[in-house]
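Minutes, project check-in
Item: structure for the 464-residue chain
Input as provided by the requester:
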Amino acid sequence: MNMRFRWFFLLVVLTSAIGGCAIPHMPSPTDPGNPLKRVAVLPMKNDTNDVDGPEVVRQKMAEALTRRSYVVMDIKESDQILRDRMGINLGGQLELTTPQKLGETLGVEGVLYGTLMDFDETTTGVYNARKVRGTFKLVNTVTGQTMWARGLGVKTEQGTNSNASGLVRLGARASDARDKDAPWVLLSSTTTNQSAKDSFIMGLGTKLLTKAIGIHLEHESKELARLVTDNLGWGPGTGAAPAAPAAALKFDMPEIKAPAPPSFGYMDWEGKKDFYAVVHSVSLNKSDNKSWVMDAPLWITGPKMKMEMDMTKIIEASGAKDASQSPMSKMTMLNRGDKKTAYTLYPNVKKYMVHTDAGEQGEKPKVEKTKVGSEKIDGHPCDKYKVVITYKNEKPQEGFIWNARDLGGMTIKSEVESKDYKMTTELKKIVLKSSPASVFEIPQGYVESKNFMEIMMPAQPKEK
């Protein structure tokens, strides 16, 4: 059971990995000043031999823009309008018109252009590689100005232990003229003890299977979209959508201008005990010397976890009014590791969201520990460790953890400090006990929502 905590809204972003699953992030920051209130992801220009690749990457880019708080037009809807009103079916045809005309026809303030440069899988046995690469630009359809542009490629590779494999890898990594516009990011490089023949058969079988079931290069496409948009400015948020008038929302999400803080803790509970506790967290913003404090009840029984968070005071401190009535002020993170499914519950509106792709977010980090002493924390004798925590594709974070010897080495305190923040997490009121199954069930009366827009919008009266 691994737990890692982050902070959003100047506040908290909580991610937990339990039993192979993780609780997804809370809503991302927004930029109300961003003029691109609605964005359409256009058909991609295809410079590859794969006919399916452009739509795979296009869909992942639409998802990435949504995560960056943009209101993204449904792809099927935009395709039908482009086909019926402008005769456009392919990305290459977009050069025949202007961003302004596209914006007027689609009813959007922004359009995302893309060119797919690579979408292929090399399978030789000695060296197998999976590659996806593209360039993208987001254009303001009112002014015609390019607001953001970037190119990137991602690849995973596998080789055998032979010398030939090493030489092929070096050759495959040799740069070409396109690397300046779209440099490569190596997601992983592994070596297998299989023979070249077995590696070829395995790689070819995997390629044929993923193509057959429609998930070819799914992981690489998703990572490309995530990484290439990591420097894209935040969108104006779901409240900017024409379908959601501002009057219908409980409060306006404040603009976030603070720097992103580091992971604020690594809580090692794997293979420990079933327990109930209160997670006491304190975040100090060094720029103004203000602190945010939150106490969150926590239940853990086997692969199941539940955490209740009341964010009212933290949201009010960031400038929002009537935060207690906001759908986002109270949340319950429910992780069912036994079902490989996670849920976010919103008690104020009796709604919840389901997250079945949480396992990828909950990947275990690399943790280096160095014992630096012994201390008592809340009456528990603890070993204190300096830790370096490295999550995939992220910079290492340094801090300290305290593991309680009388609780089987359970981490009961974590502390991380950066140039912007100092963050401390501590378990309080620990009770070693298993909780009944009912604790980890969704309460009666809750309704599932498919997206955050449905969470924020008031319930519609049923027709008689």
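Outcome recorded: Helices lie at 53-67, 75-86, 99-106, 163-172, 196-212, 218-228, 312-317, 452-456.
No further action items on this chain.
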